[in-house]
Structures are given as C-alpha cells and as structure tokens.
Amino acid sequence: MFTGISAGLKRKTTLAALTAAVLVGTTIGTSSASTAAAVQDPERNATTPTGWHFWVGQSKAKIDQLAKRSNERVVDVNVDSASPLRFSAVLVRNSGPYARTGSWSYGSEADVTNTINAKKARLTDLEPYTYLGQRRFAYVWVKNNGDAGKGWHWNYDLSVKGVVKEINKYKVRLVDLSTYVVNGKRRYAYIGIANKGVDARAWWWYVNVTPKFVQQQAQAHGARLIDVERPSAGRMTVIMQRNDESAYSRHVYDYTLTDLLRFQASNGIRITDLERYTKNGNIRYAATLIDNASPENRRIRSIWRSSTMANAPSGNDAWFGIYAKEVGGPVDVGLAETMAYQPLSVLKLIPHLYVMDLLDKDPGLDLLDQRNGISWTALKGKPDEIYCPVSMQGQQTQVYSESLRMTLSRGLGESLNRAHEALLNKYGFAAINSRAHALGLTHTNVYPGCQQPAGKKDWTYNRSTLGELGKLFESVDNKTYFNHWPQVSGEFYGLMADWNTNGILNVVASEAAAAGKSGIVNSFMSRVTLNGKGGGTLLPQADGSYFGGRGFFGRLELPFKSGRGYLIKTFVGGYFVDNFKAPCNEDTAAQSQNAACRNWKTQQNATYDLLMGEPYRLAIRKAIATW
Fold first, then answer.
1. Do 48 and 97 form a contact (C-beta atoms < 8 A)?
2. What is the rounded distance in angstroms from the CA atom of residue 112 to the CA atom of residue 101?
3. Measured distance CA(446)–CA(435) in Å, rounded
C-alpha cells in the first residue's frame, strides 16, 4: 500500500517546536573534504520550479522504481518501520540545477563507509534505526566533486555535548540531524558541511523545544528551517539557517498526510525534509518546505497569503487553489489545480453538463422545453423547499413540475438547491457521475444534498479538481463535447448567470494604464464576458465565528484586435478557499450594525475581486498589446 504525491527534497523537518539552543557542529565517523562548493545543495536551497514527489510506507525497490519512472533522485529518507523495512522518501527531478550523481541505500556503519569511499561521496541525509539490536542506517549520498564538492563530516550516537564538540573541532554547520534513544539516553547523528564560501551562513540549532519557541526563533533570526525532528509529543529538534535569499519557506508539525498534501499544494512549495511519526496511535508528519512556484504563481500566492481567509479555525492554514488557462494554450496560474476539493455549489455544473449531453443526443433538440420535463417532491405549498425523506418524515408534501430549462436556469442562476436536487433525483447521481468520468472528469463526483441513510454518501462527499473543471469548460469550447455544438454550447453557456466583471475591470484598467492606453478600457470591457458558477457556505461556530468555504469556476472571453476586427479568445479558470475562519456572517455582514463586520466584508469583496481578476493578468496584458 503506498501513497504518492508530487513534492521533493530532504528528510525530517517541520513546523513549530524548538527548545534547547545549541550552536553548530559537524561529524566524524567518516569524513571527507573537497574544494569549496560552487553552489549550495539544491535539495535544501534551490527555488527553481521542478518536478518532485514524496512517497510513504514503501520498500526500497518500489521507491527506486518510482524514481526511475520520473527521472528523480531520492533526497530525503525516513525509516517508517524496521520489519518489514519500509521508508518514506522525498524525491526531486534529477535535471537542471538539481542534477547530481548520487543514490541512497541502507545498511551498517561499514556499508555507509564503504559506499562513501567507493563512490568518493558525501552524505546528505542520514537516518539511524535499530534492527535486531544492531545500529543500522538509511542514507542518501551524492558524489563529492564539482558543484557538489564540500568539506564535511558525519557521526552518530553522540550526546548534545558530543555534537557541539565536533562542530567546533571541524568548523562545520549542521545540515542534517537525527535524534533517537539508546539504552534510555538521548543520542544524535549528524551531517555537517564546511561553513564557508557559498555555504557560509549564520545558523542555529535547538533540541527538545516547543513549536512556539521554534517559530519565535525563526522570526527573530530571519531564518528558515532546513531540518526537523520530533523527539517527543509537543517537542521539536531543528536546524535553521539565516534566510539570506529571502526564499519563501514554511514548516509544519503534527500534520496529517491529507493536511500536508493540501498545505504544499496551496502554497506551491516542495518538501525538503520529512519526519513521519505516531501520535496517539495516528500517523503524523513534520516537514520543512521551500518555494517551488513559478513567478506568476508566487504573485498570486502573495495575494492569497495577505487575505483574511488564509487562516483556518484550527490556527493552521486554510486550503486554497487557483487556476487560469487559455483554451488550447498554456496554464498561466496553477496552485493546487490537481488537488481534489469540495466545490460546493460550483458542482451544480455537473448535472448541467449531463443534461446538455442528453440534449446533444436529442433528435429534436427540444429536451429543455418539454412541458413538465422534470418533477420533484417538496413541502406542501413550498415548491422551492427541498423535501428530504430521511430527515423530514411525516411532513406534508406536494409534487411540482416545470421545464428542464427553468430548473437548469434557476439551479445555475439562483444556485437553487432544490433545482439541483431535482436533477439528481431525476437522473440519478450514479448515472451522472458515470457519464462525467467517461467524459474525462475522473476525480469528479456529485451526491445528493439531502441527508442519506446510514452508509450512503451525501453532498459532503462532493469532489472535483480545478484542472477537471477547466477540462469541462475547455472541452465545450474546443468542440470535444457535443456533436450539435452551436446549439448545445449556446445552451450550455446561455443558461449560466453572467458574472460580475469588477475584478476583470480592475486588471484591465491597470494594464491599460501601464501601456498608455487608458482610453480603450470601456471599449475593451464591452467585449468581455464571464460565465460560470460560484458557491459558498458558512457554518456558525460556538465562539461566534464562522467556518467557511468559497469558490468559482467559469469561462472568460477577451477581445484581441485582429486587423480591423476582433478575435475573441477564451480562457478558463477559477479558485477555491476551504476551511477558512470568518469573524462574521458573510451573508449579512455588509448590513451589520457592527462596523468591524462591515469593514471585514469590504475586505472580503476586494479579495474576491482579486481572485476573479488577477489570474488573468497575463492574458489581459497580451490582449491589450493588440489594441
């Protein structure tokens, strides 16, 4: 059983705990030296975007197979269990600035030493473990020459004082530190490199400290974590170095695998060090992470990070994703675009697509306008009140009917839940999901909004990805979907609401001014259309705050000048924010008597405009250049 994810880099690092301050050291056991490195080790320090993965609970053979398949190399390893021998590993694409000759293995001290000597290598990651009473090691190495050449040392089974002594003796700084218990005593294994040349850095290490202490010290020193250990519950042992490059970096502690995946995807970062451990019988992770985003994704991330929605009720991060792509062209923005998320009412697009697919197969193309084309059961006298049999038994009901056109229009335009539920009941969510999968939306599933019998899935299991929603819209625009394309695509978009384009207008005005073309804004915007579907929810909490989610996905048309006319190009995109904390009820905040709530809502609206407009800035800039 294995879990794979795209990411990359070194061993155990994490978020919040530091306790005893010590200062820098190196190792002995095996030692080798080389000329000063031309570059820092890219695994821990490079921010050039690259492909990467991390895998948990794997055999060495499986990890090697996965590495070969993706042209990646292992840069960080964690021993998950000694018998059977299983590992967690972080891998990075072995090309460009990350290209190195190296590998990884496990064995005795003699095995480690023999590998170092035979390969003229140095260690970059070391994980001691015990098997049948014998000390063993999982280790990662690179050939110690050229750009990768460094003076270095390593040692193991040392006390803190022993590490300090060797740091001072060999004049190294730590880049990897493992902690474990031998005969009831805390011991350490380390790798250190010469602290000179391009590797010269102010640095600090702390053992058995709290996450809060770690965070405080990182902020005080302007530092980022490069290695993390979890010696016991609520404690961290870490190495940090001054962040001279101002690299965007984060660290996490006590995260579930799901939360770790969401965190790295939302921020466009890769893991450099990974620590896997058990807490109260459950697997948890600590990690250090560094920037792996494109320049445009970094810009969009900064907008997200500065918003009030970036924080979750738990005090961790909310989940965020954003996507923008030209139909038939490149992806301009993509954060967490492959991560499954809860789309809320955005997923009303899926039964809409299903009906459009049926319309395409309808010989008369009149399916939408058949009288009483759809019927549903609602509360008596309240046709728009959902009737849920499991939770509303005994209440008086009534059967209503209308055309499919009306139901689709109200479902998308008003986001009427009753309309959505009527479509699911008429066609069956299983049939709708099956057709969506056949159309290439394999991670998209929609379920009833009503409470279901025990063991049955309801709307809380709804899932899709930004990438698949993009595929949905792009496949309509490029005529992959629908044989009767002019008629059906017209209905597909025509039944959607025309969305507010304030966010687009703001970007158009900004880019036009920068190009000295402010006079074109009104004419440009008169040719812009935005169709799509939004969704959101807020759940009240005991402390008076709200737990929320918000999202949108759609298609944008932009005018490009071509000769004396205009060429309309289409773009698909959207965003989601999930698990964010709101201080007020967003539905009523704008009219609240509380000035703080009104101000918060104003900030929220400004953020929504940014998320609707800024992903298309590159496309808008290209369009304006043709005017």
1. yes
2. 17
3. 12
173-217 pLDDT tens trace: 999 999 999 999 999 999 999 999 999 999 999 999 999 999 999
Q: How many helices, marked H, and strands, marked E, lie in the chain?
A: 17, 27
**Does residue 432 sit in helix, strand or coil?**
helix
Here the tokens at position 273 are 């060090």
Residue-range domain boundaries for the chain: 3-293, 294-313+324-336+498-627
What whole-number distance in Å separates Cα of residue 591 and Cα of residue 95? 56
Compute CA 107 distance to the chain's CA centroid, rounded to the nearest angstrom: 35
| Partners of residue 155 on adjacent β-strands | 190
Q: 50 — phi, psi (to 5°)?
A: -150, 165
pTM greater than 0.85: yes
Cβ neighbors of 95 (< 8 A, separation 6 or more) are 50, 71
- Do you find a cis peptide bond into 295, omega within 30 degrees of 0? no
State both tokens at 248.
Answer: 């965007």
Q: Is 54 helix (H, G, I), strand (E, B) or coil?
A: strand
Average pLDDT over residues 107-136: 96
CA–CA distance, 520 with 509 (Å, rounded to integer): 9
281: number of Cβ within 10 Å: 5
Q: Residues near 279 by Cβ (< 8 Å), separated by ≥ 6?
A: 233, 254
pLDDT tens-digit map of 492-551: 999 997 899 999 999 999 999 999 999 999 999 999 999 999 999 999 999 989 998 999
DSSP assignment string, 179-197:
EEEETTEEEEEEEEEE--G
3-class SS of residue 388: coil
User: Can you tell me the distance from the alpha carbon of 54 to that of 89, in angstroms, rounded to the nearest whole number?
Assistant: 6
| CA dist., res. 159 & res. 188, Å (int) | 6
Confidence of residue 386 (pLDDT cuts 50, 70, 90): confident
Using DSSP's 3-state secondary structure scheme, residue 347 falls into helix
| Residues 394-406 pLDDT 10s | 899 999 999 999 9
